[in-house]
Amino acid sequence: MKNIYFLSDAHLGSWAIEHRRMQERRLVRFLDSIKEKAAAVYLLGDMFDFWYEYKYVVPKGFTRFLGKISELTDMGVEVHYFTGNHDIWAYDYLAEECGVILHKQPQTIELYGKIFYLAHGDGLGDPNKSFKVIRSIFHNKTCQWLFSGLHPRWGMWFGLTWAKHSRLKHGMGGDPPDYMGDDKEHLILYTKKYIQYHSNVDYFIYGHRHIEVDKQLTKKARVIILGDWISQFSYVVYDGEHLLMQEYIEGESKL
Q: What CA–CA distance (Å, rounded) separates 214 from 246?
């Protein structure tokens, strides 16, 4: 039985990350180290800091990462890509050219006999009104169509500038943010409400918050927030029996 891996929030290409080329290479080396052991890889959003697909144009860069996930899918490894709040605008390129399975909504799936609820995490339980407004604009088809009318030179500049501002504003260019506590973390509160009506879920796995969290909420339900691939290089591996949170250290990945 091969392993299933979960990771998120690399924000590749971010102008707020000084070591972004080194960061991409580290991610690629990790994916290369697991390719023979993996049945599936779940990328839970914001793998790019800003990704916008024009009809005939895709963002510059990321060739090592895109090549590696293409290699994985060519080998028969399932690569599932969940869009986050920085890569909402992924359409068909990643699926057609790289072979990924694209998800734009949270998914409840069965893996090796256990039920998983998987999502990036943005918009789940967050009461921030300004974030909700911005999110609705980003998801609006008319707004997307209008934005696509911009020349990529200006559209990509605007997107990367906005993403950099967001990273620095929330303190995510370097050290991860603080855990706000069980009574304030929106994903924890959302999960507690969700399991009241969906008691069959064994594991909830999210990205988005850039913090490593592993909590047993009930006797059955366990929630994990994945950290990131900016400073923590964290991931979860599931072998059909054990679900473990790990941090990738060069040359030391065993699982």
A: 11
